[in-house]
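Fig. S4 source data, part A: sequence.
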Amino acid sequence: MGQLSLFNPEELYEFPKDLLEYREHFLNQDEADRLKAHVLETAPWKQRTQKMYDKMVLTPRLTAWYGDPGNAHPSGTGELETNSWTPELLSLKQKIEETFGYQFNSVLLNLYRDHNDSVAWHRDKESRYGKRPVIASVSLGQTRNFDFRKKDHHQSKYSLPLPHGSLLIMKGDLQEHWEHRIAKSLTPMKERINLTFRLVHPLQEFGT
């Protein structure tokens, strides 16, 4: 697949393959169902706080962090402990690595409980992800729209529905020039789980 086409009501934009790769059925129905049940039941879900407009607010979703020993969450908040890989998460990591040739050592789990949960516009620009990070995102459960907009031109905005079992890989300069989000919805929705696999570099590589 050379191009990934993302539609909005008025226009078509094609992200080149050096920015995004997409597999709608990366996991089959049974694999996706079993993985969703596993992480729902076993992940130590926690609602974090973050600073917005000079005050601390609760994030509108639950999160959990897994990874190799010593890979603390790069935000440095200390709120997310590093959990050891479960066999199911490790198997999924290895499947992605073997299919695409990338390497990961951590995964961030997000649980969107219903249509009120969301994540605001942002870029994954933590220094410990490196300059051109590769992030592999597996979606489970409710289909939600994954929105993109150009950092310096917000009118350039596009959406991609991410269904149960799908995989989206963000790479290249995407985090440099594009923001992304999961918006709240007016339509009632069931839970969605998102697993984002990342390669987190040791702190000493950045002189800290």
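Fig. S4 source data, part B ends here. Confidence is low (pLDDT under 50) at residues 204-208.
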